[in-house]
Write a structure and sequence with these properties.
It is built from five helices and four strands, in the order αααβαββαβ. By secondary structure, it is of the alpha+beta class. The chain has a four-stranded antiparallel β-sheet with strand order 2-3-1-4. The chain is elongated. The two termini are 15 Å apart.
Length: 160
């Protein structure tokens, strides 16, 4: 991995972003005040970090179960290697999909493509999944419904 030579300001803004934006009307202004920077400095630093691909995106995390979404599942798909990009492109356009992953397979678990899916009900989610299966002509998949969310915590990195 190449060294990006992050400035002290970059590191401070990154650390603050990992802690989460404050839930206030003007979060960048509040973050700037906390870091003893101007709002413009915070925003330009974030833009720079995005351009350098140090961070990929900035967004909110929706707790689906807390707003009434009963249909939450990870779907494990068996996708031919040559179709990974096509299938990924399809799922990135579906509003019921929040995440897509490609993972390695195992002798007793052949699934290599995973989608995190959400709907108002399990029945609605099953309809979405069956439609995707039909659209993509992918017949081998497993629906792993969420039983209980134990914790949701994002990685914290030590920035030196």
């Amino acid at each position: 991995m190449k060294n990006l030579n992050l400035s002290e300001k970059d590191k401070r803004v990154l650390q603050a972003l990992m802690e989460g934006l404050p839930l206030v009307e003007k979060p960048y202004e509040a973050l700037a005040k906390k870091l003893h920077l101007t709002q413009e400095e915070v925003i330009s630093t974030i833009k720079s970090l995005l351009e350098k691909k140090v961070i990929r995106r900035l967004g909110a995390t929706l707790r689906h179960n807390l707003i009434g979404y009963e249909g939450n599942a990870m779907v494990a798909w068996l996708v031919p290697e040559e179709r990974i990009d096509e299938v990924g492109e399809y799922f990135t356009k579906k509003p019921f999909v929040s995440h897509c992953y490609v993972r390695r397979t195992y002798p007793d678990w052949p699934y290599n493509f995973y989608t995190m899916c959400h709907a108002q009900s399990k029945e609605e989610l099953i309809r979405y999944i069956e439609k995707a299966s039909s659209d993509l002509n992918l017949r081998e998949y497993q629906i792993l419904f969420t039983i209980k969310e134990i914790t949701r915590k994002y990685a914290q990195y030590k920035i030196e």
